[in-house]
Amino acid sequence: MKKTAMKLVALGMVIGIFGTTGAVLATSALTSIQVSLDPMRLHVNGEPLQGHGIDDKSGEFFNGKKHVPTTMIYEGTTYVPVRLAAESFGYQVDWDRNHRVINFQNEKQPPKGIVAGSLESSISHETNEDGSIDFTFVVKNQTEREMTLAFNSGQRFDYVIRNSKGEVVKSYAADKLFIQALGEKVLKQGEEWVMTDKVDTLPKGEYTIEFWITSNEDQAKHKYTFTVK
Hints:
Copper amine oxidase-like N-terminal domain-containing protein; four-stranded antiparallel sheet; IPI; three-stranded antiparallel sheet; Intracell_prot_inh_BsuPI; mainly beta; 3% helix; 44% strand; 19 strands
């Protein structure tokens, strides 16, 4: 196995392979180490990685100034250029020379603080023999983190029912009083929260019910259309 002594950056050993500007390195940040430069092919989702500065013939990476090894192995760990790895997965890479910060940006990623998934809700109903309707509201935590929903009163949900003309024929909270006390509901990842309510007989026709939870965040609104025959 061929071993080559190279002067590399201690931070990931790859910052210097950035582009035409490169990185200005202090002498104290350089050290001489032995690495393996045996060629290695890179695949993304099972497909050979092409472009991104990789030379089709040599397989080396063009850093804006010259061709350098695409990979290197040091102490059992494989290293690749930061820009090559990041751009392969759709990230833009910026080098802040003054603060020595590498910034990865992907416009498809959610903003900081937002977790993949959402708080989702669904509605179903069942008509009873006396004509009343039982509604079931399900709120599910589809995010990748535990969620704590905060409430300003004893009310946990609300809904309105409109007829085909858009007129409100039923409002859940209109005739109710709720205790004025702070509260919360904790939903673990993938956990469902089931709520129910019964509505008296409605005239025949098409209706739309809109449901939402009354927390201070993540309202989880949902509309559902049903028919009374």
